[in-house]
């Protein structure tokens, strides 16, 4: 059982990745974001997830540097993820995009770099670039985001290096069981974005009942469900009290019956784009 906020999973290349982190999707550059990331690190979070398209890498980088100074942690104590956007999914363009992200973040390397979306005809060239960055020691781990089984099969036909992570929309209404099984079979770590379905799960009676039984919020129940399924999770919040609350999921355990009831909520329902029908 995952027992504390800094517990890690081991990726297929041996790199340790925290099970729990903070996401910053759609949080604008500025003091609110800086303060949120600093609050997360001060509370014990060690994983921070951003992306080029979020247009907030500079504030994330500022927060990281200030947090390291204030906490005495070293860069190696943090796990920082970013993603290459669709417009840059060529070999040279992806290499350049990586350098741009590093410059904005003020970092020498990333712990994880992902292809953000599986744009047809483009992601293989981008993957070659990620492989080159990885082989050169410029990034500690590489992976993909929003890849379905057929995307992964297509990528791995030609890839030299297997993806280490697949970050996808995943929550009780979109449990992605077939994809999770495929990734487990191939040693690819699943990571959930939008684990709380952008707040749409908070009034679910099943989750409320289970939460009441444990003295926990619906959000805490869902995040615990992620962890017990071996899913890395990165809930987003800019509020310090919510950042603390989200991480208070290591002092209880869902029963097998409760896990099954949450599993049964699946409706294959997305709040984000469908990777097969996304207007890139």
TrEMBL record:
Substrate binds at residue 116. The record marks 83 as: Lowers pKa of active site Tyr. The keyword Glycosyltransferase does not apply. InterPro entries: AKR, AKR5G, Aldo/ket_reductase_CS, NAD(P)_OxRdtase_dom_sf, NADP_OxRdtase_dom. Residues 31-266 form the NADP-dependent oxidoreductase domain. It comes from the Bacteria. GO terms for molecular function: oxidoreductase activity. The active site is at residue 54. Keywords: Oxidoreductase. Belongs to the aldo/keto reductase family. This is Glyoxal reductase. The lineage of its organism: Bacteria, Bacillati, Bacillota, Bacilli, Bacillales.
